[in-house]
Amino acid sequence: MRRAESENNALKDEFLSVYEMYSDSLFRRGFFKLSSRDLAKDVLQDTFMKTWQYIKKGGTINDMKSFIYRTHNNLIIDEYRKKKPESLDLLHDDKGIDFGENNLEALYNKIDGEKALLLLNKLPTEYRDVIFMKYVEELTIQEIASLTNESPNNISVRLHRGLEKARKLYNDHE
User: How far, in Å, CA of 40 to CA of 11, rounded?
Assistant: First the structure.
């Protein structure tokens, strides 16, 4: 009995450490993909609930990070299927942030961030996703390949092509 309780406590501790390591990154990913703070929080919570339920049922996980990200990605896809995404312009108009008169640097950062998001949103999804995972999530090529079930070579090529398209869009915009 004590051995089972000890294993259960160790499992809880490992799960909590995984939550601490990946929750911020997953939240940012969810917010970027869903453009809603509340929805991103809900998807994050569902990700860890589903993972915990899977573990409690006796499921084995070889690579926790890949499992968590894949679960999270599947839940985001489910959200896409539920409703039509809103445009960034509508979100900005509805949920605009007032920076006040004395905070010009924050305003410039917000404008640069919006420009970057608009530029990324002009890229095809296949490029946008790998650029986001590489430069926002700071995942390695190997980790992205594992999450997408593709070869590292395919991911590298897609990342290179996506960056080239982003550069072209940026240069055309300027």
Answer: 26
pLDDT tens digits in sequence order for the chain, 174 residues long: 455 566 667 777 888 888 899 898 899 888 888 878 889 999 999 999 999 898 888 888 888 888 898 899 889 888 887 865 455 455 445 445 444 444 545 545 555 556 666 777 788 888 888 888 887 778 889 988 888 888 999 999 998 998 888 888 777 765
What pTM did the predictor assign? 0.53
Distance CA 105, CA 118 (A): 20
Single-letter residue type at 120: L
CA angle 76, 81, 84 (to 5 degrees): 100
Q: What is the token pair recorded at 45?
A: 């919570």
CB burial string 110-134: b at 16+ within 10 A, e below = eeeeeeeeebbeebeeebbbbbbbb
- Residue spans of alpha helices (H) in 35-94: 37-56, 64-82, 88-94
Assigned token pair, 78? 């489910």
Domain ranges of the chain: 1-85
- Domain boundaries 1-85, corresponding CATH code: 1.10.1740
